[in-house]
Amino acid sequence: MAKFSGAFDLKEPPPWQNCCYCSSFTTSTASATGDAPSATLTNSSTTANLRQQQQQLLAFKTPADFVRHLRAQHCTVEGGSYVCRYGYNGVCSSLPLDGVSDRDYEMHVNRCHVNQQQKESQIKWSVFSAAQNLPAVLNDPSRAKQTNFFTKKWGDSFVEQQSFGTVPQLPEIKWDHFEAYLKRIGKRYRIHTRIAKTALPSGGDGDGVGGTSSQQPVVSDRLPNGAIANLKDIPEVFLKQQLELHSPASFGAVFPGISNEAEQAKQSSRMLQEKLSHYLDIVEVLIAKQVAEKSSAFFHAMTSQDAIMEQMREAATHVSRLRSRLKQIDDTMVRESLQIISLERIRSNRNIVLERLKLMSTVHQTQPMIQLLLSTQDYVAALDLIGTTQEILSQELVGVHCFRHLPSQLSEMERLIDKMLTTDFERYATADLNRPFGEVPEKVLEEDKLICIISGLLRKRNLDFIDTYKEEAITTVRAIVKQLVIEVIASSDAEVCLTGAGEEAQSLSLAEWIVLLESATGTLLKLLQRVRAVHDVMQQTADASAGKITDDVSFMDTEAFLSAEDYDVAMARLASLLQSVCNYCHERCANLVSNQSLERSTVSADQIAKLTEIVDRFSDGCERVCGIQSAPLKLALRVQGTRYAQKFHAERKSKLALLLDSERWKQAEVPAEFQKMVEHISKGNFLWSKTIQQNGTPIQPPPPQAVLIIDGEPFALVGAALLLVQIVSEYCRCASQLPVIAPQLARNVIDLLRTFNSRSCQLVLGAGALHVAGLKTITSGNLALVSRALQLVLWLLPHVKHHFQSLEPNGGTSTILTGYDSIEKDFGSHVKEIENKVLAIVCDLVTGQMANWDARPPVPSQSFRNISRQFVKLHEAIASILPEKQVATIYRVVHKNFKDKLREQLLRNNITNNGGPQHGTVVSELTFYMETLRTLKAMPAEELRDETLDDIWLK
Questions:
Q1: How many Å apart are CA 850 and CA 903, to the nearest integer?
Q2: Which residues contact 545 (CB under 8 A, 6 or more apart)?
Q3: Separation of alpha carbons 808 and 615, rounded Å
Q4: What pLDDT score does 33 carry?
Q5: How would DSSP label each residue in 28-62?
Q6: Entry pTM
Q7: Which parts of the sequence belong to the Vacuolar protein sorting-associated protein 54 N-terminal domain (predicted)?
Q8: For residues 280-307, b (16+ Cβ closer than 10 Å) or e, as one string?
Q9: Residue 828 to residue 243: CA distance in whole angstroms
Q10: How many Cβ atoms sit within 10 Å of the Cβ of residue 264?
Q11: Cα 231-232-234 angle, rounded to 5 deg
């Protein structure tokens, strides 16, 4: 048999190693060898030796031995058929009782007993039999990776035992905590034990001799043989509530030794009879003692029985007297009063019948009254009357035969009224929305009729009329747009076709589209005002129907019948009505604006401004009427503006690229209009006129100037820089005229300036102008002109940035601000690169000349002459272009570099300040050098003193 302790035992022997049923037979045989529980030690040892020998014989080494054992011991042959007897009580549970052939028997033994015995005999395993939870063991985060995991045996010892420490939240319990309890309970227990002992006879040896009891019983509890009757002498088996003699254990306890030999059985029977007689005597004596102790209670019960009978006789007399008195009262007082109550009930029932008849008469007049109310268009009253009548029929007049068809007639009439209301409302909506437009604001068409229809629909809780009106309004919008397109097409000479939605198919000119859009927006705005007027009537009617306070006197007498939930739904649908119609109008107009015919037209800024004006006027009107802002039309306008801005930017960008490629990087004259333009820009005004006027009359412009004066500072510029300022001012003027595309124009300006910066860097610093413009070389003058052009852009950037910020509602977005800051840094770094380029050219020449110089006559040497000549050329090239501060900065760096190179050359030639001939030569050279700088006046006079050259000598 397989072993189970909550898990499978992996050490269990195979099923064919032992014979299960022979082992059990051996055990029972061994048990039977003993004669009785009182068998001798010799017999027990003999049985154990026999069991051990048989178990050794039944241990098989191979399955073949086990099969031979089954054929020899657990198989019978009946008429040539083999019957398997290997099983409980010699019956195999898997082989037929009529037997099988020899070959089938062999297959049965191998299949059912050799290989499958364990499955049949084992207890069915379940998840509750597991001693460990394998997923919990595998997922334990506190355990590290185990190297012997797959080699361990599954069972109780799969997980190592761990000791748990004390919990700090729980106190440590010791034996000292129980001392007080043990003392208190121990004292009580000792008292209880002493009292229990004193209840027994004291001073004897248990048989009553030589001792006296504290309380002498009335009847003696001694047996005939003189012993005291004690219930403890009776075995416990006789004191059980259910004595089961059919149980072998109970039978053996009651009748011990009944299965012995005949002579011994007779003796044991006598002894058993004497014991049972003794037990009976004990019970009889104790019963007699108990009866004697309770005798006083028995006598008291018998004496009280006579008193109870006397009391019952008196009670019966009183009951008879009470009944006679009650009969007298019933005859004299109660019957007449009950008759009065019955008459009153009859009267009440007859009054109820009269009221019911009057109610039936009123209900009979319901249908004519409903017809009268419908003729006056009082739908709410008619529906209320139908509802009230149906309620009366279902509650008050239930089962009246003459009204059996009236509920169905009223329901049919109610459906008819609902259909009438829907039809009348649809007819009213069509007539109201399609009538000609008059002066604005208009009055609602037949307002009283509309109120009656809406009240009836609300009374029926039919809120779909709002969606019906919305659909009718949308249909009207579609028809209006189509009619306007037809009118525009009729006035045009071109042959065009219409799409299904009513828009023209890409053939109208831009001017015709603007006229169409203006007409459409004006007409649709009037339609929206008409829809808003009907919406207000609907809302007022819903407010009055829900019991809300309204200022209109026509709703003063209206009874509230609309629930809060229906009122909320009606308000939501009314809000959706205005929003949907307004959005649809914007979408239809957006289809006009975003039509593909605009892409083929040459759009001007004035036309975009006109479109913007139309869109803004229509959007503001829709917001006043509907209280909401719609985006489709503005998005369509923004798309058109974006296309215009892209085209505008592409033209200017290509123009600037052509200017830069053809630029010779020579100083250009500044026309008067550019000077005027810069003066306006410095004041923050980009809207200026090219013509110069005086008192409103154009005058001849002054001749061009050599430089551009900005805030009192001259700017020598190339022609591309002047045209760049003009192009940027055009962007700013366009943004002022078209605020809708101002953010895109601001980004385009950044892109334009980046193009100018990168292209000028490629042409000058990168020497691209040598190939593009045909320049022979890039001179310092060219670099200075580029630097001055970049400085002009740096002056222009804050004004442009402030201009675009003023056009934004929120003062400009962070993206635009970041873009302008970035382009400003790029221009500043470009100016620095040009300055470094000029310095590098001069410093390289100084370094080359100083490398060949030596302190010897003639003075000045050729190296110093070349350096002075280069300084003069540099000054001639940049002095008239760059400001004095920048020129001084350049010469200050060049002068410092000259001193550093001279100091290195003096150190190399070991020339010191010792007054020798070489020292005198150096002083003469420096005197010539300083005179050249003083003549150029490139640096302040205090920086050109002779003392400033003392640091070239090593200390």
A1: 10
A2: 455, 458, 459, 558, 560, 561, 562, 567
A3: 18
A4: 40
A5: HHHHHHS-STT--HHHHHHHHHHHHHHHHHTB-SS
A6: 0.51
A7: 273-429
A8: eebeebeeebeeeeeeeeeeeeeeeeee
A9: 117
A10: 11
A11: 75
For residues 123, 127, 133 and 136, what is the CA-based torsion angle, rounded to 10 degrees?
160
Assigned token pair, 225: 């043989």
Contact of 464 with 573, CB cutoff 8 Å: no
Q: 931, 908, 906: which is closest to 916 by C-alpha? A: 906
Instruction: Give the single-character DSSP code of 559.
Output: P
Nearest to 112 by CA among 100, 98, 126: 100
Q: Token pair of 790, please?
A: 């970049």
Tens digits of residue pLDDT in 408-419: 767 777 777 777
User: Coil, strand, or helix at residue 670?
Assistant: strand
Helix (H) or strand (E) holding 715: strand 713-715
> Which residues are registered as beta bridge partners of 670?
705
Residue bearing tokens 């809060």? 564
What tokens were used for 447?
């307002």
22-76 pLDDT per residue, tens: 754 444 443 434 333 333 333 444 444 545 554 544 578 788 888 888 888 888 8
Distance (Å, rounded) from C-alpha 701 to C-alpha 692?
6
pLDDT at position 317 is 92
Q: How many CB atoms lie within 10 A of CB 74?
A: 19
Tokens of 727: 């192009």
DSSP assignment letter at 98: T
Contact 281, 209 (CB under 8 A): no
Burial of 442 (0-12, 13-18, 19+ CB in 10 A): middle
Closest CA to 721 of 781, 828, 794: 794
Task: Report the alpha-carbon distance of residue 607 to residue 324 in Å, rounded.
Answer: 120
Looking at residue 714, the DSSP 8-state letter turns out to be: E
- Which single residue is written with the structure tokens 């195979």? 14
Pairing of strands 75-78, 81-84: antiparallel
Helix (H) / strand (E) element for 529: namely: helix 510-545
Strand, coil or helix: 77: strand
Please state, in angstroms and rounded to a whole number, the distance separating the CA atoms of residues 107 and 82.
Answer: 12
At 745, the amino acid letter reads L
Work out the percent of the chain whose per-residue pLDDT is above 70: 75
Q: Contact at 8 Å (CB) between 881 and 783?
A: no
Q: Whole-angstrom Cα distance, residue 260 to residue 265?
A: 6
H helices within 852-948, ranges in order?
862-878, 884-909, 917-936
- Residues facing 705 on adjacent strands: 670
Residue bearing the bigger pLDDT, 736 or 631: 736
Paired strand residues for 76: 83
Q: List, for residues 458-499, the tens digit of each pLDDT value.
A: 777 777 888 888 888 888 888 888 888 887 777 765 555 555
Strand 713-715 to 708-710 pairing: antiparallel
Residue 82: phi and psi, rounded to 5, are -95, 130
As to burial, measured by CB atoms within 10 angstroms (0-12 exposed, 13-18 middle, 19+ buried), residue 909 is middle
Nearest to 933 by CA among 880, 864, 885: 864
What's the CA gap between 935 and 931, in Å, rounded? 6
Which DSSP helix (H) or strand (E) runs through 75? strand 75-78
Distance CA 78, CA 76 (A): 6
β-pairing verdict for 697-698 and 708-710: unpaired
Q: Nearest CA to 70 among 81, 60, 80?
A: 60
The span from the CA of 230 to the CA of 207, in Å, is 10
Q: Give dist(CA 757, CA 761) in Å, integer.
A: 6
Residues 262, 258: Cα–Cα separation, whole Å? 9
> What is d(CA 731, CA 736) in angstroms, rounded to the nearest whole number?
9
Which amino acid, 530?
R
Instruction: Write down the H helix ranges in 852-883.
Output: 862-878
State how far the Cα of 716 lies from the Cα of 791, in Å rounded to an integer: 11
Q: b/e map of 79-116 (b: 16 or more CB within 10 Å)?
A: eeebbbebbeeeebeebeeebbeeeebeebbeebbbee
